[in-house]
Amino acid sequence: MTLLVISPDYASHLLPLATLATAWRDAGERVVVATGPATAPIVTSFGYERTDLSLGRNSNAGVIQPEDDALRGFFAATRRGLVETLLHQARARRSDLLWDPVGRAHAVLKAVEEVKPDRIIVDHLAFSARLGLTAFDVPHADVVLGHPSALPVGGEVYGYPTDWPAAFDPSPMALARLHQVCRDVRDAFTQEWNAALRVLSPSAKPSDDALAAHGAPLLLNYPEALHDPARTTLLPPHAFLGSAVRTETVPADIATWLDADDRPLVYVSFGSFLSARGDVLAKVLVGLRSLDVRVAVATGSARALPALPDTWLARTHLPQTALLARAALAVTHGGNNSVTEALTSGVPMLVLPFSTDQFAGAASVEASGTGAALDPNKVTPIAIADAVRELLAGSSPAVTAELGEQLRAKPGPLLARAALI
Fold first, then answer.
1. Of 358, 352, 356, 360, residue with least CA distance to 387
2. Would you say 25 and 414 are in contact if contact means Cβ atoms under 8 Å apart?
3. What φ, ψ does residue 35 adopt, rounded to 5°?
């Protein structure tokens, strides 16, 4: 049996998809990954074959450096808050999500013809790839790697948050403006999707909302226990995978550091992208200095951070899943990989969401009792320290530990393979 994995050229997308594919690899089956060149080393590290497929203008094999104008504009928007950030992302979506749709569709078909897979899994956000598979009637499993709200259901509009934590209080007028922009982008995107679909398959049925289109089966890289049951009833046929947590090797020096101190470990990371908000990361680190904890921080592209205690571990990049396995608490931006990896390790979270589905994810963490959420633009070091202290002393560690046991008992890769058999 051959499994074809189709992923954008981004580490944060490929890593969970590659992890899901380990169920096929470990069963002795062939796995081929269609992605761009930047993430080729990740494909190799999993022992998979690779076929070249670029699905967008950009790529990210690790930590993004926020140097170009588009990224500067995004980070400036995050400083203005929830609505301004989502407005910025909605407007950028006109050109980001459906790059070269006809050309990419034919490239995907070529990859399918060359690999001759028995099963295909594709990133839900790889819209050009899914358009091609849909147009050419190629069966495929659609994997939503982010919070399930990345697939709109009911009356939802893509890009408009389904929920947000109590620490955020956007004005009704601002939210109305955001909702209108998201509707306009949805309509423009759907027109572009349908135009490309007519070229690829003139007899195909056009979409009413291309941002809500999906393949089957639908696989959700998220714990069902954190998803609103009322929203679950609106989903098309689906399977919750819980999480796709990769196995990482701990370097000897980090293993020594882990064993040298028995104080509670707080793991801090804003991911490969939002680590650029070094101003917020600095407030987190100052707040943690007042507590009797030790800290491991993945600094990413952050600059001008405060001096740290000698007993702390600070690196540009750290083996996140390995450190979470030893952590008492995680401070995170709320990206879905970080959230699901922390939950699988039974680690409660303090979430500081900046963009996209991080707001809905943080609200779910808050509502489930697996952590707390604060506004990164308003938070102070004192508030950080107070929140960490309360989380460690409260019920969140027990709640999250129980959920972690459930997730580890049913690993996402095995659930994904079972859904495709």
1. 352
2. no
3. -160, 180
The Cα 274–Cα 197 span in angstroms is: 35
φ and ψ at residue 344, rounded to 5 degrees: -65, -30
329-332 and 238-240 strand pairing: unpaired
Per-residue pLDDT reduced to its tens digit, 60-77: 665 555 556 668 899 999
Sheet of 349-351: strand order equals: 313-315, 294-298, 265-269, 329-332, 349-351, 371-373
In a domain, 25, yes or no: yes
Distance from the Cα of residue 80 to its chain's centroid = 22
Q: Which domain holds residue 283?
A: 252-409
Residue 66 has a pLDDT of 57
What total of structural domains would you count in the chain?
2
pTM > 0.90: yes
Instruction: Give the CATH number, domain containing residue 404.
Output: 3.40.50.2000
The token duo for 257 is 């550091």
Sign of the CA dihedral 46, 317, 351, 265?
positive
DSSP, collapsed to helix, strand or coil, labels residue 230 as helix
Both 57 and 16 in one domain: the answer is yes
C-alpha pair distances (Å), 169 with each of 163, 333, 360: 11, 18, 14
DSSP string of 152-216? --TT--TTS-S---TT----HHHHHHHHHHHHHHHHHHHHHHHHHHHHH-TTSPPPS-GGG---B
